[in-house]
Design goal:
With 188 residues, this protein is α+β, with helices and mostly antiparallel strands. Helices cover 45% and strands 15% of the residues. It has helices at residues 24-35, 57-87, 109-118, 133-152, 176-187; strands at 41-43, 50-52, 96-98, 101-108, 159-161, 168-175. It has a 4-stranded antiparallel beta sheet. A two-stranded antiparallel ribbon has the order 1-2. A hairpin with a 2-residue loop joins β3 (96-98) and β4 (101-108). The longest helix is centred in the middle third of the chain and has 31 residues, at 57-87. The radius of gyration is 23 Å and the shape is elongated. The termini are far apart.
């Protein structure tokens, strides 16, 4: 038995948020307008470069407050993560909040190994010969990549060895929720 053709959805059938601006400059302009901020926003059709024109001091302060409010949890988590890592003598100089995610950034192999140990990784027996420097970075990266989801209760961490700098690993970005679980794992 054939079902009758369903009518095409109309504008009233679509959720209100489905109609998002086509370009980044249009989206930013709309967000400014919704927040009551007045600033000229320009951008080409391809939005290769979006520019915000001069802001009145009051609008600039309001924009700064809105940004801090919107990113408050992620910034607070990043600060806590930076502090607890410093307490464990783990340096994460590239730790940043970007687009709501916490990027851990480049880290020395020694610091990555210390992070893996604090998270519960079992170091290899001392009876084995030390691996070559490049293999050491790969080994530590694999170890950290393995122990991270176990210690945080989920959430993977991308770890890659820098070809041009074998003493560094690049740690990827994690969401704020995973970062909070990482902070808890490092506390205990």
């Amino acid at each position: 038995m054939n079902a009758p053709d369903a009518p095409a959805p109309t504008a009233a059938d679509r959720p209100a948020h489905a109609d998002s601006p086509a370009h980044a400059s249009d989206e930013l302009r709309a967000a400014f307008s919704e927040a009551g901020l007045h600033a000229p926003v320009t951008g080409g059709a391809a939005d290769a470069d979006v520019r915000i024109g001069p802001l009145a001091p009051a609008d600039a302060r309001q924009l700064a407050r809105l940004i801090r409010t919107g990113t408050k949890r992620a910034l607070k988590t990043a600060r806590a993560l930076r502090e607890i890592c410093a307490g464990h003598r783990i340096e994460l100089p590239g730790l940043r909040v970007r687009q709501g995610r916490i990027t851990l950034g480049p880290v020395r192999v020694e610091d990555a190994a210390r992070l893996a140990r604090v998270l519960g990784a079992v170091p290899p027996p001392a009876t084995r010969p030390a691996p070559p420097a490049g293999a050491d970075a790969a080994f530590v990266g694999a170890l950290l990549g393995h122990v991270f989801p176990e210690a945080t209760g989920g959430g993977a961490l991308s770890v890659s060895v820098r070809e041009e700098a074998p003493g560094l690993l690049d740690l990827g970005a994690i969401d704020a929720r995973t970062a909070r679980r990482l902070v808890r794992a490092l506390r205990f």
